[in-house]
Structure prediction request, 488 residues.
Amino acid sequence: MTAYFIGLDIGTSSVKAVAFDGAGSVLGKKSIAYPTLCPRPGYQEQVPHSVFKSAITCLKHLVVAMAGSPACISLSSAMHSLIAVDKKGNALTNSILWSDSRSADIADKLKGTPAGMEIYRHTGTPIHPMSPLCKIAWLRRHQPSVFQKTFKFIGIKEYLIHQLTGHWLTDYSIASATGLFDAAAFEWFQPSLDFAGIDLYQLPQPVPPDFNLGAFRQAFSYLGISPETPFIIGASDGCLANLGAGASEPGEAVLTIGTSGALRMNNARPVMDPKERIFNYLLEKDSYVSGGASNNGGVVYEWFTRQFFGTGPAAKSMVSRQAAVQGLPAGSEGLLFIPYMLGERAPVWNARATGGFFGLKKLHTKAHLHKAVLEGIVLNMAIVGEVLEQVAAPMEVIYANGGFTKMPVWVQMAADVFGKKITVTESGDASAFGAALLGLRSLGIIPDFSLIKEMAGASQTYQPDVAKHDVYLEKRQALKEIYGKIYG
Prediction:
């Protein structure tokens, strides 16, 4: 049997287990989707045990399909989730997601204050309702009985780890996205804990991303694999998506548009923005990922297609979607889509922002609205890029991954909007691949990450159209000005 390595990616909309060989080629995969619950406006939740069961099912399926134990399993997970649990690990709340905005009032009062600025400087996490810091403070104020019963405050990855091993552990990368972790000292930040009103024992122990959970053999009774299998704790999906795309050097950026969107650049140290517009998350010591994440990625586009095209086969076809917009000029003949339908993180960090169409005229068709939505999502990411280049470094290279790469017309649009060459990597599972790379290195199969560009590969490169870029520069400025007039 060929040796294989599993990257398990616990995402926002689904969990995915991917098997890779030692050269990075995909040997097999399994994914399971799960629903997001919206019990009240602004609430975004998932049932923790449903996510856990989906992850275990994916792993078991893949191990059976591969007809033998993997050489290693490594974990990737979405950031910013919060679950309150009791001493037995039972969930007292659902998993409160990054897109949940219930703690907006908490974030608004903290942001811009001396305490808030100190927290940002040390943790690298902008003050925003996405942050577990604000979510915990919200629970203390609005659900005091749950708050008082809570033994640990954890995220979905830590929930899975505890279910498998019985231990309370988190990796540096996930911890650095909580607003509670000092990203330079690699320890929980006491002023953040004081603001949230919690004690140190109520948080999991942070460990490096190559920490081997395999020492806790309890996990393997669930999975039917060899008890000697290394089980690497891994890192966050955002940091691993950069790694899996081949971005390992300063100045290399990755544009990801999946359910959400993100633009991230590698740095050897945190790059703090005085205006608190970008994040700084750890991959590991001396390796940080700086950038901005948007709430309004593919989730907004899927909303548009459901409302305007339905859910039939033609609506789901990428060929049909591309044909609908290809014949229209850049800029959608004056129509601009403001993409902030779910509030927004980067670049505006305003949980109350809303979306809409600006400049709508009688000449505009459904196809114009379609193209404007695609443009608006990418224009917003380009504004994130402006900020990133102002405070960090020029983007020398942009790699692309995520669901939007299945639609070449959208990737070409991104190249035109950014005015830069964009390379799509071969692996469509960058976060899972990044997790597997950590496993390969931890076993000494690769000495470092110097070979990842060769392993990640490049399926296609898109060159920008200069004339279209000029149009999009005007549209980008218009988006900033309209937002400024509405929200000041």
Remarks:
- The CA atoms of residues 268 and 286 lie 5 Å apart.
